[in-house]
Amino acid sequence: MSTLFLLSPARTDGLRAAQLARSSTPLGVALRAGEAALGEVFAWLSALYFRGKLAYARAFADAAPGAAASLVMTPVLGLRDPETPMSAAQLAAMATMDVKSDAFAALLRRDAEVVRDQLAADAQVVLLGSIASDKYVTTLLDVFGERLMFPSAFIGRGDMSRGGLLLRASRDGTALAYAPLASATRRGRRPPKLPPLRR
Question: DSSP for 3-71?
Answer without folding.
Answer: EEEEEPPPP-SSHHHHHHHT--SHHHHHHHTT-EEHHHHHHHHHTHHHHHHHHHHHHT-BPPTTS-SEE
